[in-house]
Design a protein that fits this description.
The structure is a single chain. This protein is mainly alpha-helical. Helix content is about 85%, strand content about 5%. The protein has two domains: about 120 residues, no CATH class; about 40 residues, no CATH class. Helix 2 runs antiparallel to helix 3 and helix 3 runs antiparallel to helix 4. About 5% of the residues are buried. Keywords: Membrane, Transmembrane, Transmembrane helix.
Length: about 210
């Protein structure tokens, strides 16, 4: 149903919406002496609590990802019943396993961050309590690090649950990258050896000319 042209239009619309939304939400933040940089407007606090973090950032992406994973699972069950080559069936099963594990990882990694942001928005910790403020910052750093894993975990999920992807990575890293590095190191060593061999010859020729 989706063409490349329609996909470009939709992507452009979402990018514009994200930029405008980020500017509007960022303008609601203010620097307070006791709490630091927090949302100062009560309307934006309610918006972040009841729509932005639980729906726009949390529930909506989870629902979309889960819907496509269910469609992928349904597609694989439909393919198994059809008379298709075994290789095609294996590839579709691997793709479905990759999508399902990606959705599970996405839900686990994003949910904790959204829950923390809702709590931190409504109950900011004052700097007048150093211990509680330090614990809050430590917790924020840990949860933010867990949330950032969501953007780097694709490679590891795919390499674990897809034998074909694993073989392709091994082919690229071992047979191509390693061979190029090995060839590059050997060529440098050969240049160094040739230069070392040339220097004695030049010194010998100079001594013969002096004689």
């Amino acid at each position: 149903m989706c063409t490349l042209k329609l996909g470009r239009y939709v992507t452009f619309i979402f990018v514009c919406f994200a930029i405008i939304h980020s500017i509007a939400l960022g303008s609601a933040y203010g620097i307070q002496p006791t709490f630091g940089c927090v949302i100062s407007d009560h309307t934006w606090v309610q918006y972040s609590t009841y729509f932005f973090y639980p729906v726009l950032v949390g529930l909506l992406p989870i629902v979309i990802a889960s819907s496509f994973s269910i469609l992928a699972y349904h597609n694989v069950r439909h393919i198994v019943r059809r008379q298709l080559p075994i290789v095609r069936r294996k590839l579709d099963k691997q793709m479905t396993a990759m999508v399902l594990m990606r959705v599970i990882a996405f839900v686990c990694l994003v949910s904790s961050y959204n829950a923390y942001r809702i709590y931190a928005t409504n109950f900011p910790t004052s700097r007048s309590m150093p211990m509680a403020y330090a614990i809050g910052k430590l917790l924020q750093t840990i949860i933010l690090s867990i949330n950032n894993i969501n953007y780097i975990i694709n490679f590891y999920i795919f390499i674990i649950f897809s034998s074909r992807f694993h073989r392709q990575v091994k082919l690229v890293l071992v047979k191509k990258c390693w061979q190029r590095c090995k060839y590059w190191c050997c060529s440098i060593n050969n240049r160094i050896e040739s230069e070392n061999n040339v220097e004695p010859c030049n010194s010998q020729m100079e001594s013969e000319e002096n004689m």
